[in-house]
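Page 37, top half.
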Amino acid sequence: LSMSGSAAFGKVLYGSPNWGDYEVEVSIVSNTTPNCGLLVRATNPGNPAFLGAQPSRNDAATATDWVQGYFVGLTPDGVVLGKQSYSYRELARADATFRAGKTYVLKVICTGARLQVYVDGVLYLDYTDPEPYMQGMVGVRTHNCALTFDALQIKPLKTNSTQ
């Protein structure tokens, strides 16, 4: 999946809103300053233009936040974990430098309320949400950058829960 142009905005979701614990991995090559990554435990996607939002909010940039779930992404100065509920709230951040033109492998492991975030095999974030989303789809998201997502892999995890 490629999102081109100097300022691409968008999201694409895959799978079932009933998925529970899983591991997801994707290769990312950003052609511009990166602000992109994975959506996990995502449900109820929407676009403000279709949901009757105020005209000032009917734009592609706002639409990237119109979902409930988590965004795990690469930015020019770090790895971020944000919670989305038709807006964006950062939960955790780890300092790092990511540059245009280099391929990065982003992996997220979702187990119960715990989210573990790896880039190129290195653990950057290990966060347990006190009010977690426990299930949802997987997706990719970009906010104001041009990039290519490749080799998206989703692996269900067996836990002691009812999954």
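Page 37, bottom half:
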Amino acid sequence: MKKKDQTLRGAEGFNDYYSQIYGDRWEKIKAAFVEENQSVEFKHPAAEKSYFLDSASVFAALNLPVKGAQSILDLCAAPGGKTLILASRMDSDARLSANERSSDRKFRLDTVVKTCLPEEINSRITVSCSDGSLWCTRQTECFDRILLDAPCSSERHVFQNPKYLNEWSKSRIKTVSMEQWALLSSAYRLLTIDGIMVYSTCALAPDENDRMIEKLYKKFNKDGDSFELLPSSVDITEIKDYVKMTCPSFEKTEYGYSIMPDVQNGAGPIYFSIIHKKKSVIS
């Protein structure tokens, strides 16, 4: 199978690869990709503009508990939807760092923060442009809560774009997963003891989802007590003044959860895992 994976390319290879993973379900997932995504409106009553994002993305961000946290990080924040969900829920004395490595996407993120949140909240948000995988070289164990919505294969967008679909190859997943690991290992080092991180993607490939958390276990949890995975726990009333939505249902995976569009009226796909750090990685 590995030898065959190396030759998988284009639309045919894309279809073959995900058929291997999802079997008969793959046809239903593709059908859901064609239908309209389940977007919901985020509208703060004191802000200038609304923002629309996938209900599954809202749900993933809600799984990061921010009450009581003083220092929050959204490491790969653009275009900004999940940043809004975090910022609208944080305590009045908390601060949020929203980072994006692309200057163009950082500009969009900055605009979203300034126009979709009131001044009282966006004045406590710092927007930066840098490579999140390098942050741990400058500082460690300094954020109580971290959201890492990692760059991913984004199969939904690939399937909907003929250019990207024709250019697809299995090697793309390997390249992206290497980038994800650099970000995840950096984020884990940035997380304080007793801090909580949500790792999420909009990918379907297990290498970008459960296998990332499995790798985190092998690197940082060899004794089994350095971190633990938390169950999904969401309080939709935290955002009742800003978002009107019904929480989508999720499926349990080996190390996290997934929301799949074929069974959630087009919402997703979203994968997320909730990591509670119990011991320092600083020797």
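Margin note: The mean pLDDT is 95.
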